[in-house]
Inverse folding.
C-alpha cells in the first residue's frame, strides 16, 4: 500500500488496491496534502472530503446508507455522488474527486466542480419566513439551492443574524469558541442570495385572508407563501426577592453574551434546572472556574428524557467536575447574594441562570386562527391548517411516522431539516417530513447522542458501560426500540437511525 512518510496516510494519487476496500466501507488517505476518503458502494468507488462541513466530523468513521454518507458526530447526510449536503446540520457540500480504476487499483484524479446551481424554478410570488433561527435559515438556504428566484424575506425578532444556537451554551459560553464563529452565515451570504434579512423585527399579526403580516414597527409585508419558524421561548419563573439583573435566561446570542459578561467577575452561580441547557451552562461556567450549584425539583437530572440511570451518570460526571446538586428542591427566594431553597438550604450566588424549559412561540398562529395543539399543527408536508402557510422547528407539531404520534421536539437538527423540507414543499415538491429525530448534548468531553423519540418506555437496555463512557442505551416499549442514547458509539447511533428509516420504508411497502 502506498503511504506518505509525513502523514502516514494512503496517498491515493499512487492508487489503492480495490480488494482492500470492502463494500460499504471507507478508508482515509490524502492527495496533494488534502485529506480525503475513499468510499465503496458495490462496484463504484467515490472520493470525498475527509471532514464534514458542519463541525469537521471525520466522515470515514460515519456510515454509508444508499448512496449517501452520514457524519458520525451530528448525522449530517451528504451525497457520495455530488457531495451535496442533503440533510442538515451541514448546509454546505463536501468536495468530491474523480476516481479511475486501473487494473485492480483505484486512482484519485482531479477535484470535481461542485454541482451547478439548480435551474430557476417556479414558485410562489414571494416567500416570507418568520423566524431567523435554525428552521428559518435552513429553509431560506434550501429555497435558493432549489432554484427559487423570487423575493425572499426572513423576519427575525433577534438582534443578530441566524446563529449556531447550540454553541451558545457550550464552547462559546465556555470561552473556547470565538464570537466570529457563531453566526451561521456571513453577512454577504444574504446579499449574494438576495435574502432580505429583517432583524430586530417582531411580527405582531398574520392576516391569512389577505396573505399579509404586520410588523411591530408598523411595516406590512405581503406573501405568496409563509413559513412560521418562530421557535420557542424560555419559561420565565418569578423568584421572590430577585432583581432582573440577577436572573439570566439563555436563548439568544445576546443572552449568552450577557452571561459571559457577568461571569467575568463572578465566583458562584446557581443554575435552576437540571435539563440539557442548565447542565451545559453548568459545564461551561465550570470551564471558567466558577463554582456552580444546580437546583432542580427532579430526583435525577434528565430523567424525563433519558431515564434515571443515564441521568445519574450525567450527575456523577458533573460532580466529578465540581458541580454541586440540590435535587428535590427549587429556589424559594433571593435576598442579595443569598439564595434560599425550598429545602431550607441557603446558597451564595453572584447571579442565577434559569433553564427550566421552553414554550413554543404560538402567539402568531393562535391570533391568525391556525390549528394549534400544544404547537402549530402541521401535516406530513409541514403545511398548517391554511394552505400555503407552513411551520417548522420547535413551534411545530407534526405527525411523526416512526411513533405514529403527533410530536413536537426541541432539537436543532430536526428544526433545520424541517426548514429544508418545508422549503421544498413551498415549491410544490410534496415531500413528506419523515426524518428520525436526532439531538446531541455536550458535557465536558462527553457527547451524548439521541436518535428516535421515546416519551414513555417500559425498559431501558444498556449495552456497554456508562461508567466507562462507552455504551448504547435502548429505550423500549412492548419490545420495540423507540430511541437509542449513545456515548462514544457514534456508529451505533447512525446504525440505529438507518434501522429506523428502514423500518419505516418496510411499513410503507407493506401498506402499499
Ligand atoms: C443554548 C441552547 C443550546 C441548545 N443546544 C442544543 C443541542 O445541543 N442540540 C440540539 O439538538 N438542540 C439544542 N438546542 C435547541 C435548538 O437550538 C432548537 O431546537 C432550535 O434552535 C429550534 O429552531 P427554530 O428555528 O425552531 O427556533 P429558533 O432557533 O429559536 O428560532 C426562532 C426564531 O424566531 C424568531 N421569532 C419568534 N417569534 C417571532 C415573531 N413574532 N416575529 C419575528 N421573529 C420571531 C426568534 O427571534 C428566532 O429568530 C439548544 C437551544 C439553546 C437555546
Ligand atoms: S460535524 Fe458532521 S454533522 Fe456535525
Amino acid at each position: 500500500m502506498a503511504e506518505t512518510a509525513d502523514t502516514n496516510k494512503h496517498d491515493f494519487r499512487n492508487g489503492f488496491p480495490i480488494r482492500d476496500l470492502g463494500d460499504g466501507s471507507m478508508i482515509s488517505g490524502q492527495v496533494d496534502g488534502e485529506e480525503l476518503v475513499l468510499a465503496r458502494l458495490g462496484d463504484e468507488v467515490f472520493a470525498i472530503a475527509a471532514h464534514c462541513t458542519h463541525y469537521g466530523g471525520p466522515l470515514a468513521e460515519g456510515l454509508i446508507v444508499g448512496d449517501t454518507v452520514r457524519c458520525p458526530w451530528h448525522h449530517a447526510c451528504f451525497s457520495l455522488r455530488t457531495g451535496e449536503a442533503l440533510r442538515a446540520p451541514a448546509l454546505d457540500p463536501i468536495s468530491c474527486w474523480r476516481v479511475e480504476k486501473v487494473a485492480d487499483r483505484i486512482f484519485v484524479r482531479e477535484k470535481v466542480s461542485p454541482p451547478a446551481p439548480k435551474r430557476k424554478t417556479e414558485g410562489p410570488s414571494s416567500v416570507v419566513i418568520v423566524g431567523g433561527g435554525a428552521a428559518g435559515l435552513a429553509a431560506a438556504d434550501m429555497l435558493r439551492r432549489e432554484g427559487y428566484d423570487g423575493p425572499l424575506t426572513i423576519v427575525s425578532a433577534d438582534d443578530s443574524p441566524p446563529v449556531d444556537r447550540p454553541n451558545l451554551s457550550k464552547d462559546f459560553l465556555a470561552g473556547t469558541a470565538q464570537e466570529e464563529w457563531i453566526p451561521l452565515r456571513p453577512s454577504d451570504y444574504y446579499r449574494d442570495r438576495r435574502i432580505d434579512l429583517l432583524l430586530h423585527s417582531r411580527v405582531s399579526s398574520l392576516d391569512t385572508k389577505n396573505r399579509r403580516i404586520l410588523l411591530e414597527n408598523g411595516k406590512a409585508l405581503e406573501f405568496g407563501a409563509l413559513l412560521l419558524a418562530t421557535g420557542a421561548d424560555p419559561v420565565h419563573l418569578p423568584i421572590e426577592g430577585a432583581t432582573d439583573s440577577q436572573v439570566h435566561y439563555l436563548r439568544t446570542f445576546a443572552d449568552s453574551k450577557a452571561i459571559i459578561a457577568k461571569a467575568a467577575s463572578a465566583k458562584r452561580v446557581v443554575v435552576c434546572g437540571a435539563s440539557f441547557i442548565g447542565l451545559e451552562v453548568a459545564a461551561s461556567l465550570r470551564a471558567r472556574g466558577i463554582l456552580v450549584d444546580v437546583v432542580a425539583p427532579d430526583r435525577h437530572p434528565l430523567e424525563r428524557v433519558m431515564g434515571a440511570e443515564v441521568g445519574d451518570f450525567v450527575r456523577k460526571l458533573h460532580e466529578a467536575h465540581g458541580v454541586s446538586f440540590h435535587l428535590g428542591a427549587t429556589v424559594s427566594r433571593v435576598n442579595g447574594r443569598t439564595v434560599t431553597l425550598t429545602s431550607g438550604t441557603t446558597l451564595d450566588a453572584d447571579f442565577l441562570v434559569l433553564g427550566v424549559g421552553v414554550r413554543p412561540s404560538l402567539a402568531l398562529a393562535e391570533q391568525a386562527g391556525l390549528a394549534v395543539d400544544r404547537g402549530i399543527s402541521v401535516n406530513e408536508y409541514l403545511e398548517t391548517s391554511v394552505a400555503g402557510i407552513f411551520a417548522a422547528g420547535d413551534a411545530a407539531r407534526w405527525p411523526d411516522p416512526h411513533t405514529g404520534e403527533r410530536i413536537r421536539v426541541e432539537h436543532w437538527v430536526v428544526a433545520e431539516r424541517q426548514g429544508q423540507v418545508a422549503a421544498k414543499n413551498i415549491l410544490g415538491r410534496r415531500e413528506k417530513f419523515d426524518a428520525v429525530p436526532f439531538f446531541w448534548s455536550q458535557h465536558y468531553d462527553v457527547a451524548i447522542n439521541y436518535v428516535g423519540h421515546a416519551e414513555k418506555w417500559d425498559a431501558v437496555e444498556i449495552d456497554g458501560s456508562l461508567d466507562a463512557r462507552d455504551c448504547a442505551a435502548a429505550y423500549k416499549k412492548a419490545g420495540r426500540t423507540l430511541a437509542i442514547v449513545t456515548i462514544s458509539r457514534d456508529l451505533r447511533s447512525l446504525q440505529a437511525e438507518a434501522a429506523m428509516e428502514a423500518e419505516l420504508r418496510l411499513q410503507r411497502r407493506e401498506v402499499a
About this structure: The first helix runs from residue 134 to 145. The chain is about 20% helix and 35% strand. Confidence is low (pLDDT under 50) at residues 1-7.
